[in-house]
Amino acid sequence: MKISRELNLKLTQKFSLSQDLLLSLKMIQLPLLELRERIDTELLENPALEMKENKVDDEQDIETIENSFAEKEDYFIDSSSADINVGLSPDSSKMDQNRQFLEGAIAKESTLFDHLLFQLECQNLTEKQKEIGRMIISLIDPDGFFTANIDEVFKDEDKEIAHEVLEIIQILDPPGIASKNIQEALLYQIESKKTDEINQTAYKIIKDHFDLMIARKDNELIKKLKITREVLKDAYIFLSFFNPYPGREFSPKDVKYIMPDAYVYKKDNTLYVEMNDDILPSLTINKYLQKIALNVKRKRKITEDQKYIVNKVQNAHQFIKLVNYRNKSLFKLVLSIANAQEDFFYKGPKFLKPLTMKEIADQLGLSESTISRLASSKYIQTEWGIHEIKYFFSNAINKNLNDTVKSSESVRELIKEILENKKDEKISDQKIMEILQNKGIKIARRTVAKYRNMLNILSSHKRNL
């Protein structure tokens, strides 16, 4: 066996992303609030990057500070008593605002667990019963249902007590709490009312024909109960005042704040595009460090400290460039959308036209992937509400009688409008399809059902349940 060394040349093509390109891709994806956080982080980490000073604001701040140190009468007076005159009348709006602020600041939203636990502690129970009660309450789901099996959760010696405590919890507020399901919750709520206040037809429907009601088989209910349609309607009205999910009124109300990246509005019959960049600070380079970096570049040998400064200045320049590129590209994107969807901004969602990212990409000279990243998680404030940028990109359905193309979003708006105009009718998907065809929009019934589900609207036989 002969072993030898050989030198071979091989030409290959390899795709790789530079560090600058990777940073650019990440930057253009950031929505407004995340971009502000990214800028704040960079300001902390890079000493060469700083915000532009606003001299007018500084002077106002200094004046405010000086005024805050001006002498005031009775500065240390105890104003905690209601008898002390603090310069405001009791019915003063300013006093009301201050009180509302203080009361709101210390307010804490009660959870379902807290609400039930407080009531449990007020009951005349032994410590053992309360301990079991706390366990049962912890197993109640956010909808207010207790679906666990008592016999499986507790030991043999505690099972009897657990059943007794569960019955006690089931009479607590809100009515219907700790039920097994919706049917049981509604029965508890109905039975908690006075006998003469109960609609007996509604009670029978929930107790004996719950499945028929859920399937909205009204004709079958009328036959079984031997009642008229008007009586059935009265029963449904009676049931509409009860809560099938008793725990939901205590569900945490998480608020998702959306800050629009741009505004598109009408003024003097002209569309205007304005970027919401007030929360973004103006960035600049530290002059002292920039001067050091320029002087260092002329030298052949530099120290580690000087190299550090040069790198930080370069990074700061690059960061400012990326932020500006992101903002300018986003402005061009919103401007193109405003031009393409002009009818939407003037007339409303029904006039949204089909628009693809490729069309906008070709106009701006960017790739579709870049447009997709720019549009991601960013919003535009319009006269018709706040919409995600991706909302304005919609596929075409078909041509109508006037040879105009409809977008899928505009068709959804039409379906929504048809259902709102015919609230009193149980209009089916087939009927909606026929109405749309009369308008020149050819669409399948299953597509109507799909769009109706996207609008969170129930089918005709479950609507108005």
Short structural summary:
Helices cover 52% and strands 7% of the residues. By secondary structure, the chain is α+β, with helices and mostly antiparallel strands.
Describe this structure in words.
With 465 residues, the chain is α+β, with helices and mostly antiparallel strands. The chain folds into three domains: 19-50 and 258-394, no CATH class; 112-251, no CATH class; 397-465, Orthogonal Bundle (Arc Repressor Mutant, subunit A). The chain has helices at 19-29, 32-45, 55-68, 93-106, 112-121, 127-138, 150-153, 156-169, 182-191, 200-208, 210-214, 218-225, 229-239, 287-297, 304-340, 342-347, 357-364, 368-375, 408-421, 429-438, 445-454; strands at residues 49-51, 262-267, 270-275, 283-285, 379-382, 385-388, 396-399, 405-407. Strands 3-2-5-6 form a four-stranded mixed β-sheet. β5 and β6 (385-388) form a beta hairpin. The radius of gyration is 33 Å and the shape is extended.
Helices and strands, in order, run as: HHEHHHHHHHHHHHEEEHHHHHEEEEHHH
N-to-C span: 86 Å
The radius of gyration computed from the alpha-carbon positions, rounded to a whole number of angstroms, is 33 Å
Count of DSSP E strands? 8
Biggest sheet, spatial arrangement of strands? 3-2-5-6
Main sheet properties: 4 strands, mixed
Unreliable stretches covering 5 or more consecutive residues? 55-108, 399-405
Number of domains: 3
Number of helices: 21
How helix-rich are the residues, as a percent range? Answer: 40-55%
General shape: extended
Q: Indicate the multimeric state.
A: single chain
The secondary-structure class comes to alpha+beta
Strand content: 5-15%
Q: Which whole number gives the mean pLDDT?
A: 76
